[in-house]
Structures are given as C-alpha cells and as structure tokens.
Structure to design on (113 residues):
C-alpha cells in the first residue's frame, strides 16, 4: 500500500492475498475489479483506494458467508446485470482453470507440490 496516496495496484493486491502468480491472467484482473467494485461501481482508475481495500477485507473475512457469496457471485456476473449467463459461466470457469494452471501451490511446510 502506498501510504502517500493511499492506493494499491492490482499486483500488490494479488500478492497480499497470496495469488500474485495471477497478475498476468484474466482471473487476476477479474479478482482485482471485483474488489474495486465491492461497494461502488464508480470508476477509480487503475488503483484501489485504501478504504475499499479494508471494506473488501471485511467482506471476505471472518464468518461473513453472505458477503463472500455476494463477492463470488459478482466474480461470475461480469456484466453486472444481476444474472449469470452461460457465456459468463464459461468465461469465469476458463479463467479459473487458466489461473490454477499458472499458480504454484505450497504445502504447510512451504514446499511446492
């Protein structure tokens, strides 16, 4: 987080969540845009401001099951019309597959599997 401007780019956000490998993939872009749009649809440029970051953390943490479900629904509903069409489902599943193939997973001891 750049404390001077209180803004965070996509790469830093993905690194924070431990998915920095997704920086160059559509799934990383989709995740970043969903976090940016968690509470507002207003255009904020290529950065995420600190207050939205904190709000997204609260939405995705703890026992906030409803918040996590809403976030995941928005991951699938790319055009934000409230419905998930067949093409949106296909696209997000392809993004997940591409993203998982690009990600290196580590076990509990920190060794790659």
């Amino acid at each position: 987080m750049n404390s001077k401007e209180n803004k965070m780019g996509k790469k830093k956000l993905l690194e924070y969540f431990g998915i920095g490998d997704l920086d160059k993939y559509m799934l990383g872009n989709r995740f970043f845009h969903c976090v940016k749009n968690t509470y507002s649809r207003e255009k904020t440029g290529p950065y995420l401001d600190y207050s939205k970051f904190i709000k997204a953390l609260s939405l995705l943490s703890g026992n906030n099951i409803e918040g996590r479900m809403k976030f995941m629904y928005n991951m699938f509903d790319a055009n934000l019309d409230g419905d998930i069409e067949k093409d949106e489902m296909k696209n997000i599943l392809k993004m997940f597959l591409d993203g998982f193939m690009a990600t290196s997973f580590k076990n509990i001891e920190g060794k790659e599997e």
User: Anything to note?
Assistant: The chain has one domain: 7-102. The mean pLDDT is 79. Residues 7-102 form one domain. The radius of gyration is 15 Å.
